[in-house]
Amino acid sequence: KKSEVSGVMAKADINPKSIHHAKKWSDDVENLYRFQQAGYRDEAEYKQVKQVDTVECWPETGFVKKLQRRDNTFYYYDKQRECEDKEVHKVKVYVY
User: Fold this and answer.
1) Does a structural domain hold residue 13?
2) What residue intervals traverse the membrane (predicted)?
3) Is residue 15 a part of any domain in this protein?
4) Which domain holds residue 35?
5) What are 65-84's pLDDT values in tens digits?
6) For residues 46 and 38, what is the distance between their CA atoms, to the nearest angstrom?
């Protein structure tokens, strides 16, 4: 399951129109949590900053597997959910 980020959007310097906090956990919220832990808004910003076309994901779950931070260290994530219920409200959902 791929996220709805078109190749065009990832290339351009796009700023979100609005932002809200996640109310309940979902696959998308899980991946946003992982990007935000690594210091990015979301997949679009990660691709833009790191100049990559794809993000490594677990084939079983579709969750992000590995992210490179801005200081070039790597974050590695499990196949299972990592964003606990008490963390969900901290996840920022950006609307473009």
Assistant:
1) no
2) none
3) no
4) 25-95
5) 999 999 999 999 999 999 99
6) 9
Residue 6 lies in a domain: no
To 5 degrees, how large is the angle CA 13–CA 27–CA 15? Answer: 15
Question: Got the DSSP string for the chain?
Answer: ---S--HHHHHS----SEEEE-SS--HHHHHHHHHHHTT-SSHHHHHHHHT-S---B-TTT--B-EEE-TTS-EEE--SS--S-HHHHTT-EEEE-
With 50 as the cut, is the pLDDT of residue 8 above it? Answer: no
CB 48 within 8 A of CB 10: yes
Among 38, 34, 49, 37, smallest CA distance to 3 is for 34
- The structural domain count of the chain equals 1
Q: What is the pLDDT, as a whole number, of residue 48?
A: 93
